[in-house]
Design goal:
Residues 110-120 have a biased composition (Basic and acidic residues). Residues 94-120 are annotated as: Disordered. The chain is of the alpha+beta class. It has four helices and five strands, in the order βαββαββαα. The protein has one domain (2-119). It is globular, with a radius of gyration of 15 Å. It starts with a strand and ends with a helix.
Length: 120
């Protein structure tokens, strides 16, 4: 994950250029996390430089306003990333609350899968 400072006036633009994380913004409730004003999402490595340039993101400057998970490929679609992907990323967080939320969500997804499997 890469963290950036961003002007308030550019945050909305960042949101339109990335694939949002289900763990932030209004969807933070699904992980029992408090919503923050940090924009977090996923972007392909090939699009990163263009987004940084367009939105004038600055790395190593506080406060952190944008967190980007850089990947080679993104799943098809324009909505938030799948819940399991976001949970796995949270499970690797250094923040204990985020890590716990990610691990609990992963366990819930596994338990749900096992229940469905045994019903068939």
């Amino acid at each position: 994950m890469v963290e950036y400072w961003c002007r308030d006036s550019n945050l909305a633009k960042v949101e339109t250029l990335i694939r949002p994380s289900a763990a932030t913004g209004t969807l933070a409730d699904s992980f029992q996390l408090a919503a923050t004003d940090v924009v977090e999402g996923y972007v392909t490595a090939s699009a990163l430089d263009d987004i940084v340039r367009q939105c004038r993101l600055k790395q190593g400057v506080t406060p952190v306003r944008v967190r980007l998970h850089v990947t080679d490929n993104l799943p098809a679609g324009e909505r938030t990333m799948p819940l399991g992907v976001c949970a796995a990323d949270l499970a690797e967080s250094n923040d204990p609350r985020e890590r716990r939320a990610g691990l609990e969500t992963l366990q819930q997804l596994i338990d749900d899968h096992h229940r469905k499997e045994h019903q068939e």
